[in-house]
């Protein structure tokens, strides 16, 4: 089968139990996506599938056959490169939003999806306990919706500042 990652096609004929995370790192050589817990608890492995964020350790590569559903995978490498950073990548650099950097690719992928979700006016952004009628992300919403991405260094304040800048 073929799996599309960052606009490129990769063939996959390995063990059907291979996680998308292992496929990306081992078969595609895209090591930006990190393995932390390998159990869906840390968010280090977050990638985008058709623009939606998922933990790549919790899904099988074989479930993303391009010819069987047309999934498009985007990793942190697909969001920008050193010569042309995405707005979020540049904001993370500007705000020093990392220490060891291990969680950063997952944080950036997750925040990329978060900002797109907010722009799309996803109804769930308007909730009773969050006064946010205009679908503008509040700091509390950013914290809540990034809570699946852990940072053991504790760079949360700067991560929030970076996302805040791009979210507007
Ligand atoms: Fe996937 Fe931790 S490695 S959530």
* Structure summary, number of beta strands: 5
CATH topology of the largest domain: DNA polymerase, domain 1
Helix content: 25-40%
Structural class: alpha+beta
Our count of domains comes out at 2
The ligands bound in this entry are:
FE2/S2 (inorganic) cluster
Distance N terminus to C terminus?
A: 41 Å
Total helical segments: 6
Tell me, what's the shape? globular
Average per-residue pLDDT, rounded, comes to 91
Radius of gyration: 16 Å
CATH superfamily of the largest domain: [2Fe-2S]-binding domain
> Main beta sheet, described?
5 strands, mixed
Strand-residue proportion: 5-15%
**Helix/strand order, N-terminal first:** EEHEEEHHHHH
Q: Explain this structure to me?
A:
With 168 residues, the chain is an alpha+beta fold. The protein has two domains: 2-79, Beta-grasp domain (Ubiquitin-like (UB roll)), CATH 3.10.20.30; 87-167, DNA polymerase, domain 1 (Orthogonal Bundle). 33% of the residues lie in helices and 11% in strands. It has six helices and five strands, in the order E-E-H-E-E-E-H-H-H-H-H. Strands 2-1-5-3-4 form a five-stranded mixed beta sheet, sandwiched between helices. Strand 3 and strand 4 form a beta hairpin. The longest helix has 16 residues, at 104-119. The N and C termini lie far apart (41 Å). The model has no long low-confidence stretch (mean pLDDT 91). The structure holds FE2/S2 (inorganic) cluster.
Keywords summarizing the entry:
168 residues; binds FE2/S2 (inorganic) cluster; globular; Ubiquitin-like (UB roll); 6 helices; alpha+beta; five-stranded mixed sheet; 5 strands; single chain; DNA polymerase, domain 1
């Amino acid at each position: 089968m073929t799996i599309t990652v960052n606009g490129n096609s990769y063939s996959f004929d390995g063990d059907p139990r291979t996680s998308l995370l292992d496929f990306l790192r081992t078969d595609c050589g895209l090591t930006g996506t990190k393995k932390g817990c390998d159990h869906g608890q840390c968010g280090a492995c977050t990638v985008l599938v058709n623009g939606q964020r998922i933990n790549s350790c919790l899904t099988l590569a074989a479930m993303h056959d391009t010819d069987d559903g047309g999934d498009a995978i985007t990793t942190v490498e697909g969001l920008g490169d050193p010569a042309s950073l995405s707005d979020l990548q540049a904001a993370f650099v500007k705000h020093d939003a990392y220490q060891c950097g291990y969680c950063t690719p997952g944080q950036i992928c997750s925040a990329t999806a978060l900002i797109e979700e907010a722009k799309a006016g996803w109804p769930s952004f308007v909730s009773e306990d969050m006064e946010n009628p205009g679908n503008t992300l509040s700091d509390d919403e950013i914290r809540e919706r990034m809570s699946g991405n852990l940072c053991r260094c504790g760079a949360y304040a700067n991560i929030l500042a970076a996302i805040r800048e791009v979210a507007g």
